[in-house]
Structures are given as structure tokens and as C-alpha cells.
Amino acid sequence: MKRSKKATTREKRPFGIWALTVFAIVINGIMPIYGIFLLFLDPFSSGEVVSILTIAFLLIIALGVIITSIGTLLRRNRARKALLVFITLAYVPQVIFSLAFVLFYKDPEASSTAAYQQILRGVVTVAVYIWYFNRARIKRFYGVGIDDEKTSKATKK
Fold it and tell me: What is the pLDDT of residues 40-73, one digit of tens each?
């Protein structure tokens, strides 16, 4: 049986794509939805009432991360770009609120260590996603920049 050229030249999916998309699905997709589900089971267990807008925002981000992660695994360039947007939207509010806690909350008994950890985790996570998914090798995997390379080689000759 003869194999088609397209099937033999298809590049293998890099491990980083698997790792980062599965991480996004679990941490930024499934866990927030599970947390919202637990909130509906006992809304007053945390001692705070969460606004419906906050729940809607978290649900939109979580579903967006799941959908775009699956699209990213399926080699969709638009999903790759959208995943970066959703990951950024998932972590930026966390970083802003943690930074506000550190700067403005002046209770000497309150530990700001957790806030510093959230700031560091948010900044590093977003930076890793943006760096990794914009590497030349990863962009080539999604078919971005291939035409540019061909035209630049043709003009050099």
C-alpha cells in the first residue's frame, strides 16, 4: 500500500503543546468549572456571596480555555492565538487583585506570601505560554511563516 506524501511529511506534535494544553484544560478549564459547581451546592460556605458576573466571567474563560485548547491540539492556528488570549484573561485579574492586596492591605497579621506567589505564578505562566507558542518551530507546526520562508529563499537565489 502506497502512503501519501502529505501523511509522511506531517510533523510530529511537540511535547510542549501536549503539556501546556493539557495543563490549561485541567487548571484553567475543568477546575474553575468544578469550583463553580461546588459554589452552587453551598453558596454560603465561603462566607462570601459571589456575584453572577464573576461566575459568568469565570465560566466564559474556563469554557474558552477548554475549547481553544482542543483546537490548539488539533493544529488550528486561530485556536492557538485565542488560547493565548484566554490564558492571559485567566491570570491577569488574579495578578491585579494580588498586587492590590500587597500594596493596599496594611494588616500586619495578614500574610502577603500567598499574594506574592499568585503574582509570580500568574506572570510566569502567561510568559511561558506566550513565549512557547510564539517560537518559530511551534509556529511552523501550525503552518505560520512557511510561505515567508519560501519567498525569502526564492528572492535570495
Answer: 777 666 556 677 888 899 999 999 999 999 999 9
* DSSP H or E stretch at residue 60: helix 52-73
**Contact status, residue 140 vs residue 146, Cβ threshold 8 Å:** yes
Contacts of residue 88, defined as CB under 8 A and 6 or more positions apart, other chains included, come to: 126, 129, 130
| Interatomic CA distance for residues 15 and 12, integer angstroms | 9
CB 69 within 8 Å of CB 29: yes
Phi, psi of 108 (to 5 degrees): -65, -25
pLDDT (tens digit, 9 = 90+) per residue, 66-111? 999 999 999 999 999 999 999 999 999 999 998 988 888 877 666 6
C-alpha closest to that of 22 among 12, 13, 9: 13
